[in-house]
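Figure 2 data, in text form.
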Amino acid sequence: MTHQTVGHTRSGGSGGPLADCPDSALVPPGHEPRCPVDITLAALAGRWTPLVLREFLRRGEATYSELSAALPALSDKVLSDRLAQLTSAAIVERHRTPGWPPRVRYILTAQGRALEPVVRSLWEWGAARRDAAG
């Protein structure tokens, strides 16, 4: 049994924005994602990852200290994990400057910048929901 991506209609259905995604792209949980939505969510997995990405989209690049100050609710472990995850997904690059103390800057990649419409959509949806609530 495969899961169905939200908004996805099965082949032969009435169509919709994701109707061109074949059933073969939908896989059971635990397997390598093939559905574009699953691939995106895997790259942005974790509660704080989209907020870390938001900071990179605002700045283009940042140090660990700058991100920590911008996201004070994150523990050091969570921020370190999210930076490692985003680096592994090629969304940010880690640049170390030689010398002592070591200085590291994280820079948004082209793939990371390509996520701006996704984050902007999240922002707009959240703002509309916030404004509707009062």
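Caption note: The first strand starts at residue 61 and ends at 63.
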